[in-house]
Amino acid sequence: MGDQPHIIELIDQLLSETAESPTLQGKIFDLRDALFQAQQVSQRYILEIKNLEETVAKLKSPAHRIGTVLGIGGGGLYRLVVGGTEYQAAVSPEIFEKENLQPGDQVALNEGFVVIAKLPKPEQGPIARITTRLADGQWLVTGQTSNSETLVLNHSDLEVESLKEGDEVILDPNQRVILARLPKRKSGVVVEDDLVQIDWSKVGGQVHVIEEVRKVIEYPILHKGILETMDYQLPKGFLFYGPPGCGKTLIGRAILSDIIRQLKEKESNLDLEGRFIHVKGPEILNMWLGESERKVREIFKKAREYKEKGQVPFIFIDEAESILGTRQAMRGNNISNTLVPMFCAEMDGIQSLRETVVILATNRPDLIDPAILRPGRIDRKIKVGRPNRGDCNAILKVYLKPSLPREHENLDQMVQPFLDALFKKSSQQEVIILTLRTGKLKKLYWKDFISGAIIEGIVKRTKEKAIERAIDGKELKILSKDLTECLATEFKDGNLLPAESNLEDWLQLLDLDSRDVVRVRRPNESDQAANETLNRSII
Predict the structure, then answer these.
(1) For residues 486 and 129, what is the distance between their CA atoms, to the nearest angstrom?
(2) Residue 133 maps to which CATH number?
């Protein structure tokens, strides 16, 4: 728009020369105002263009590298690591004057590897475990995917006193500096109980299982003299197998409680204690290489320590197939199967631990490595199956205690409609229909899915009904019809059927070979839908 100050001067001169012509002066004033407005618009456009030019320049500029400060180098330079490679880099004067760079700080570098900005401390990064503390703020750590150790530093603002060997820590992206300590995670691998006493009355049903368990576990411990005469030794290990929720863990606790009770009575030893070392198989698998093996050794070490103190230890491993499985079973765990040989070695060395019992519990015995199940390691295999009518009656008596207010004092009279409905074979009780390769149909009913855990859930639903009525002002008591209604609700709302990808495992739990099944469908499902399910999951 030309030289605007000069134009304004000319306009002011015209105004002084046209003082005697008001009309002309008005037009000149309008011109002067328009000029000022145009000037403002022009400045705004100039500013916008400048911002756009800066944005374009940023978009065209290369990405900055991110490095981690390791310390001060020679000649006023800083030691940095970028992408695993160390450099000595200069710091821009602006950053050098404002920031005091410390080991662990994250910085941005330009193309010339000059530090141009200090970045915020990252809150995320690789996880490692401290193995050894060294001098001068240095540590040896192991990562998640390697057994090799790495020498690292600690961040300047990290409280070194809070760190110790075994801690999990967060490293910088270059994995050279400890940024933070992770909170200690609670381990649920080993649960040590002082053995809450559980007598056989708490185990509903399973009479034949209890009898067999007592013969093979109790007798060798309680009747040593007879067994020594026969040169008979207590078997090392036992396998409890069967569907979930049928009392495998409960039986393990009850047998140890009974052994301790009888030993106290027989030997008049009031100080005798039982130790139930409960191991949850999936939780023993650890992301740290070698950690799972260490835990296995630790379990047997604890058993030895308890035995040396005169206590009776039981090692109970739930879901044993998850850590002691075949290659097929371990395929999804993404770890090398070194636990099986480790466990075998510990089992072979348990000979010195007389009266120490190892019990494996599993829903899938076919997935446990045969090296574990051979005689001399696991000597007895005991099936804990689904409860029959008599077992269900006994389980109900456990949960419907005499102290509970109920419709009938006679419990048998009260639970009879429940049992009739549970074991009835009608269309209402149908859960699934199988077509076998022989051409025959096999229908599965409620009774084929029942377990002690499901009965416990049904009783809980029944209690909730009674509580709701009492809150509404009615009499507090459990009704017989409540049990039957809650039975239907449990099988209607319960997630009894598996995901399609797990049909093979599910059929195995029902003592069915998936190779003998050619079609699986729900009672109201069409043949086409059944075929689609079949093609995705079984054949």
Answers:
(1) 50
(2) 2.40.50.140
CA torsion sign for 330, 333, 337, 339 is negative
Give the pLDDT confidence score for residue 23 in this predicted structure.
78
Judgement on whether residues 167 and 257 belong to the same structural domain of the protein: no
Name 356's Cβ contacts closer than 8 Å, sequence gap at least 6. 303, 307, 312, 313, 314, 315, 350
C-alpha angle 376/210/272, rounded to 5°?
75
Identify the pLDDT of residue 372: 87
Return the half-sphere exposure (C-beta side, CA atoms, 13 A cut-off) of residue 521: 15
| Same-domain pairing of 101 and 217 | no
Q: Looking at residue 350, what is its pLDDT?
A: 62
pLDDT of residue 469: 92
pLDDT score of 499: 53
Same structural domain, 353 and 368: yes
**Over the range 252-287, which residues count as b (16 or more CB within 10 Å of their CB) and which as e?**
bbbbbbbbbeebeeeeeeeeeebbbbbbbbebbbbe
Tell me if 389 is assigned to some domain.
no
* Whether 93 and 139 share a structural domain: no
DSSP bridge pairs for 383: 241
* pLDDT reported for residue 263: 79
Q: Which of 119, 146, 162 is the last residue of a domain?
A: 119
Supply the pTM of this predicted model.
Answer: 0.65
Query: 427 lies in a domain?
Result: yes
Which pLDDT does position 537 carry in this prediction? 42
- Regarding whether 336 and 478 lie in a shared domain, the answer is no
Which one of 350, 383, 416 terminates a domain? Answer: 383
Residues 353 and 416 in one domain: no
* pLDDT at 424 (0 to 100): 92
Identify whether 537 is part of a domain.
no
The answer to whether residue 392 sits within a structural domain is: no
Listed as ranges, residues in the chain with pLDDT below 70 are: 1-5, 57-62, 98, 144-147, 185-196, 269-271, 286-290, 327-337, 350-355, 494-503, 525-539
List the beta bridge partners of residue 435. Answer: 441, 519
For 228-240, the pLDDT digits (tens) are 888 877 777 889 9
HSE-up (13 A, CA, CB side) for residue 396: 26
Q: Which amino acid is at 280?
A: K
DSSP label at residue 244: T
CA dist 521 to 143, 495, 497, 527, 529, Å?
48, 16, 11, 7, 8
Query: Considering its fold, how many domains does the chain have in total?
Result: 5
The three-state secondary structure class of 523 is coil
Q: To which residue do tokens 């770890």 refer?
A: 335
Nearest CA to 203 out of 419, 346, 384, 48 is that of 384
Distance of alpha carbon 59 from its chain centroid, rounded? 43
Q: Are residues 98 and 194 in the same domain?
A: no
CATH value at residue 344 = 3.40.50.300
User: What is the extent of the structural domain holding 373?
Assistant: 190-383
Please list, residue by residue across 471-488, b when 16 or more beta carbons sit within 10 angstroms of its beta carbon and e when fewer do.
Answer: eeeeeeebbbebbbbbbe
Are residues 454 and 368 located together in one domain of the fold?
no
Q: CB neighbours of 496 closer than 8 A, spacing ≥ 6?
A: 431, 449
